[in-house]
Design goal:
CATH architecture: 3-Layer(aba) Sandwich
Structural class: alpha/beta
CATH topology: Rossmann fold
Strand content: 15-25%
Number of domains: 1
Number of helices: 5
Distance between the termini: 36 Å
CATH class: Alpha Beta
Amino acid sequence: MDLNGTYEKRLLRAAARAYRDQLDAAYRTDADRAIASRIVASAAFAEAPAVMAYYAVGTEVDTRAIISTALEAGKTVALPRCRRGGLMDWHRIAALTDVAPGYGGIPEPADDPSTLIDAAALPPTVLALVPGLLFDDAGFRLGYGGGFYDRFLAAFPGHAIGLIRARQRIESLADRRALEPFDRPVSYVVTEEDGLTIP
């Protein structure tokens, strides 16, 4: 599928989702393993006391290996719960099984006040793994249209890392008129082929 044409943002989102879904399953699996390896081998991962992750669904970049490695290393791992107004609450999990279908059928942790984390109060060494349909070279993402991650990133103090396969990375969303004033870029974009060195 050609993603190089000019699309209205809504149509670009649909095209990007269809493109991702039709990527060869073996390619997706191999790319996701390589992305996970890049993340867990990084100095930033070693130094991070906490990882704010997402539980991948469908053809998103799989995060389970990263989450499992973080838990095994004794790091705090938190997943989001979506709520009204495009906001997310972050809750600690102890295992990958600590989720149940929530907003839009996405696996979410329980709404337990004892596991709630204030993401804005975390140290600057914390990592956040951010999903997207596309990422560009400036770190901007094409998400799903709810604005959840834009609101989160506006106050997040740590390293926000966009996870995307190389075939879903493009040069510029701005050139496609797919950016809005509230869009927030991630600090780094990591693919199976490359990723900026995280200090």
